[in-house]
User: What shape does this take?
Amino acid sequence: MISCILKAKHKFLIALLFAVTASFGAWAQASDPANVATKGVEPEATAAASEPGAGADPAVISAGQALFRNNCAACHSAGSEVVVGPGLQGMSQRRNEAWLISWIKNSQALIQSGDADAIAVYEQYNKQAMPSFAFSDDEVKSIIAYVESGVDAAPAGGTATAAAADGSQPIGDQAIGAIGGYLDIILVVLIVVLIVLVVTLLLISSILKNYLNKNKQLDEYDHEIVNQRFDFSKVYKSSAVRTIVALIFVVVLIDLGLDKAMGIGIQQGYQPRQPIAFSHALHAGEHEINCNYCHTTVYESKNASIPSANICMNCHSQIKTESQEIQKIYRALERNKPIEWVRIHNLPDLAYFNHAQHTQVAGVECQTCHGPIQEMDVVYQYAPLTMGWCIDCHRETPLNTKGNGYYDNLVKLHEASSKGAFTVASNGGTECSKCHY
Ligand code: HEC
Ligand code: HEC
Ligand code: HEC
Ligand code: HEC
Ligand code: HEC
Ligand code: HEC
Assistant: This one.
């Protein structure tokens, strides 16, 4: 008798599970963006759309993104909004690649050559001349690939520039964001499914219990089993359950602890308020003042140096003298006290780092280590400055030996003894004593 009921229950459960999985599958398929995209569009159009952008190398896309932000974002959005010029979304469907390349390199030349499309947009946008860009074909193609990738297509130009200011890598962030949103939906659906399952099971068990209680064939012992209550105190007292809970707790604690311990002394992202609202975006970005105009020793010595108030006065004895912020410079000079800039980058004393070796000898760009300083209104620490970070770069970076007599013999010796690239590491750049006193 019982076995017959149990079978019925099994069948019911299996049917229920089946239904739930099937409907979940259908939902997942319907909301898969790739599916939606390809369903609505003609096969031809899909091929055209995917030709330049989709499937392009992420490195090309992010190179294009950087070029776009630095050169185009002031006038164009990567979406469809008009800023100064038209939104560039779908530009490679409107125009062919050769047209785009010659337009971007020199739009005026194209207009003067009598190209009808060029004249049409030019007139549509009130004959505003777009500047020319001395890009290579590949650079233009990378911009096209970036725009077609749709990475920043949704937001308008304003958002694109706002994202540029934070200097992070929005491609990765956005992709992760999209996947994150997707996972959230799946999680919610799974939880709902679980709750439905639990409720159904409870219902089934109470129906079964009622039915069995009415059944005359059961003896005392069967009744006892049927009416058994779920005993939480037993679960609580069970040593197995306690051990498992304790284990999970300990693992989580250790994980958190390790994360914190590894992070000690790492100040990536540190962005203190400075005593004067000095902006690199304004000075090094907009006004293109060279870094070493202010950081005078960065190519010659260990330290880059922070400019004294006198250097500011080269310009600010004339410029913006009425500004509150500039008057702070005058006050510092009157009192003969240095401006108290808050130091951002700071290696522990046990490590030795030399700017001249990296900027002058190796020719590493400031931005490689300090990020897009020329876009920062307030400077923040871009790199982690950990030992692993230094060593990783030393392992990957070939030495800049061209025109450096010091390396002539070493290059010959290296070529004789090893086939690999002549990296900083192969020249001893990972020996402890190079960086530790
Ligand atoms: C100073 C503003 C400005 C900048 C910077 C600028 N553009 Fe333009 N762009 C325009 C204007 C305005 C037009 C509309 C045509 C015209 O008036 O010349 C245009 C038109 C275009 C078109 C033609 C669009 C179409 O629908 O045919 C393309 C493509 C384009 N720009 C790409 C770029 C790229 C790529 C960059 C960066 C490398 C860039 N532009 C930088 C102002 C600018
Ligand atoms: C007009 C002068 C000026 C120019 C040009 C300038 N800087 Fe600075 N820089 C400063 C001043 C002042 C500070 C200290 C205040 C601050 O952190 O904003 C500073 C701070 C910094 C810091 C942080 C130092 C710390 O405390 O760890 C870095 C890194 C830096 N600059 C890099 C650059 C780079 C790279 C460039 C060129 C792209 C540049 N600077 C151009 C004046 C200048
Ligand atoms: C090579 C010239 C030059 C030097 C050197 C220079 N500045 Fe400037 N600074 C400018 C220019 C140009 C502006 C923009 C003025 C404007 O917006 O009209 C400016 C603007 C500013 C502003 C914004 C003022 C406001 O109220 O809008 C501050 C603050 C400032 N500078 C601080 C400094 C400090 C601090 C130093 C020294 C570390 C310094 N500047 C060195 C050229 C310079
Ligand atoms: C290879 C990486 C690297 C490069 C390239 C680099 N820096 Fe630095 N920079 C650092 C590190 C690391 C520190 C922290 C140094 C310390 O605490 O001793 C630092 C500190 C600074 C500081 C704070 C003051 C000081 O001297 O400690 C300034 C300003 C600065 N850098 C400017 C520049 C400028 C300008 C350039 C380009 C001309 C540049 N840096 C290139 C890694 C780099
Ligand atoms: C972006 C890449 C990069 C990063 C990051 C970097 N370095 Fe270097 N480093 C180089 C290159 C390239 C050279 C080779 C310069 C030369 O030709 O002498 C070098 C050389 C050195 C040397 C001299 C090595 C020798 O063989 O004489 C020291 C010391 C050094 N780096 C310390 C550091 C420290 C400390 C850090 C981290 C705070 C660091 N570097 C981060 C690229 C890097
Ligand atoms: C390219 C430069 C470089 C080389 C080579 C290097 N270190 Fe470091 N080391 C650093 C820097 C920079 C720090 C400080 C950054 C930090 O605290 O993470 C550091 C920190 C340390 C610390 C302190 C760790 C802490 O958390 O305070 C120890 C210990 C250390 N290094 C040992 C070594 C040993 C052993 C070697 C040789 C196998 C070595 N280092 C080689 C750059 C280097």
